[in-house]
Amino acid sequence: MKILITGGAGYIGSTVASALLDSGHTPILLDSLVTGRPEFTRNRIFYKADIANYGALETIFKEHPDIKACLHCAARIIVPESVAHPYLYYRENVAKSVEFFHILHELGCDKVVFSSSASIYDLVPGFMVTEQSPLNPSSPYARTKFMMEMVLKDFCGAYGMQGIALRYFNPIGADPKMRSGIHVKEPSHILGKLVDTALGRIAEFPITGTNYETRDGTGIRDYVHIWDLARAHVLALTNFKDVFARAGQPVENYLVINLGTGLGVTVREMVNAFEKVYGQTINKREMPPRPGDVAGAYANADTALRLLNWKAELPIEDGIRDALKWGELRNQILSWDE
């Protein structure tokens, strides 16, 4: 089965592509390479273009008329950057995605999996959220994800498309075969910063926010191995019929599914787990929260088990080990432009 992946040269998109290949499917990658890596496109079918470029998409579907579904991963994803540059985020994540969904429908691709985010949830007592929990996106980045869920849902209801919004919690680790991993030179996510601290690329790990109403004052997250996340995508992309049947054929042709482990881990607990796997302590410093940061949430993953027959299998320690291994190899695999 052929699957179109936007953002296919990014961290998640490239790993899903590897999982599809390992399962006997053919990923078709579309990426502008503004943040994606050309190294992740090698030996794969790849088109360099913007997601709102009608001509490029028309070419892709003429050359691959047997594409069965699309995974839309392409997006800007840095929360503080979205606070400082909201126009960039609404243009890239919202305006272009609206055009992209419309083009997909016009070209006959009506099955879409959308990369959404747990950042759209409101804070709830106990921090565990289901798909029915209240929403309150707290940054421009999170609001772009919320808006695009609404757009996709409306398109599905109006145009007969089928959409699945996968609400990611916190991906960690790397492809266990080291084909891809965190691909930015200065990672902003927790495990990337922990690895860079351990490897001496940065002087200390910043613990941003220590006064949240969690068990130790630091933010709480649900850290899911990127390979587990990729497996969930394969199940969603290749089994639309079964997934919607299990859901009772919703009249709006649209589903929302959390992807997480179901376990809440605080930042301090993550740091402790990292130091245990790494075998030594690292330099760290407590700091105020970053713009757009919140206490966090972790997933109730029952819907993923029921609809996708999926649950996370890899423990946090595997994510840390794979991230460390990728961190050591990253500069050999990726060439940085100075």
Q: What does it look like?
A:
With 338 residues, this protein is α/β, with parallel strands linked by helices. It folds into 2 domains: 2-173 and 223-259, Rossmann fold, CATH 3.40.50; 190-220 and 263-333, UDP-galactose 4-epimerase, domain 1 (Alpha-Beta Complex). The chain has 11 helices and 15 strands. A 7-stranded parallel sheet has the order 3-2-1-4-5-7-12, with helices on both faces. It has a two-stranded parallel sheet with strand order 6-15. Strands 8-11 form a two-stranded parallel ribbon. Helix 1 links the parallel strand 1 (2-6) and strand 2. It is globular and about 55 Å long. The N and C termini lie far apart (39 Å). The mean pLDDT is 96.
What brief labels describe this structure?
338 residues, alpha/beta, Rossmann fold, seven-stranded parallel sheet, two-stranded parallel sheet, 11 helices, globular
Question: Any idea of the CATH topology of the largest domain?
Answer: Rossmann fold
Strands across the major sheet, in which order? 3-2-1-4-5-7-12
* Number of helical segments with 4 or more residues: 11
Gross geometry: globular
Order of helices and strands: EHEEHEHHEEHEEHEEEHHEEHEEHH
Can you summarize the main beta sheet?
Answer: 7 strands, parallel
Average pLDDT confidence is 96
Q: For the terminal residues, how far apart are their CA atoms?
A: 39 Å
Please state the oligomeric state of the protein chains shown. single chain
The CATH H-level superfamily of the largest domain is NAD(P)-binding Rossmann-like Domain
CATH architecture of the largest domain: 3-Layer(aba) Sandwich
Low-confidence parts, pLDDT < 50 over ≥5 residues? none
Specify the CATH class of the largest domain.
Answer: Alpha Beta
Count of DSSP E strands? 15
**Structural class given helices, strands, pairing?**
alpha/beta
Measured as a percent range, the helix fraction is 25-40%
Query: What number of domains?
Result: 2
Strand content: 15-25%
